[in-house]
Amino acid sequence: MTPSLLAERWRREADAVDLTVGTELERAVCFANPGVEAPGWEEITRVLTDPEVGLCAHSARFTHADVVEHICAISGGRVDLEEITTMADRFLASDLAVRLTPDDQVGRRKAPQWSTAAHRATEDRTVALSETLAARTVPAISASAVTEALRTEPGLGSDQTRPS
Fold it and tell me: Rounded CA gap, 139 and 146, in Å?
């Protein structure tokens, strides 16, 4: 079915059950109830940076569109498009987000990407630890220690005890 045929069918079905459509339905569905408070900046940023459900919960990188999508989900229809866009821009400009791609990439085909500052700090610590481990020198096990260990483990086969 085409979108116009679907829209007409849905209008008829709504009329049949006396369901209000249009602005009133949008208000009801989108929680545009003045008694339900929209989330504030602190709540928005807390959820955006949450390691379990935030922007980096499933991917280390995100785009402006991902931030907008998350804010829409967090707001549950209680924040209008202008406020959502303003919050997304504010979040990406804050110290909570770290831009991963430079501004001046000529001919860029991908959207700019960010990560949360907390996620990036975790990655930096992980890289530093792996570099420390890679630089660590460990003395080799002596041949006599290996021979003694093999002698005390009779269950090993000759293919497992043969020097390589």
Answer: 14
Instruction: Calculate ∠ Cα 67-73-74, nearest 5°.
Output: 90
| Stronger pLDDT, 62 or 24, i.e. the higher one | 62
In sequence order, the β-bridge partners of residue 105 are: none
Phi, psi angle pair for 147, to nearest 5°: -60, -45
Q: For residue 118, count other CB atoms closer than 10 A to its CB.
A: 15
Pick the closest to residue 115 from 60, 64, 48 (CA basis): 60
Question: What would the pLDDT profile of 75-108 be if each residue is shown by its tens digit?
Answer: 888 888 899 999 999 999 999 999 998 776 677 7
For 99, the enclosing helix (H) or strand (E) is: strand 97-99
Of 111, 5, 119, 117, nearest to 51 by C-alpha is: 119
Q: What does the alpha-carbon distance between residue 80 and residue 89 come to, in Å, rounded to a whole number? A: 14
How many helices (H) and strands (E) the chain has is answered by 8, 2
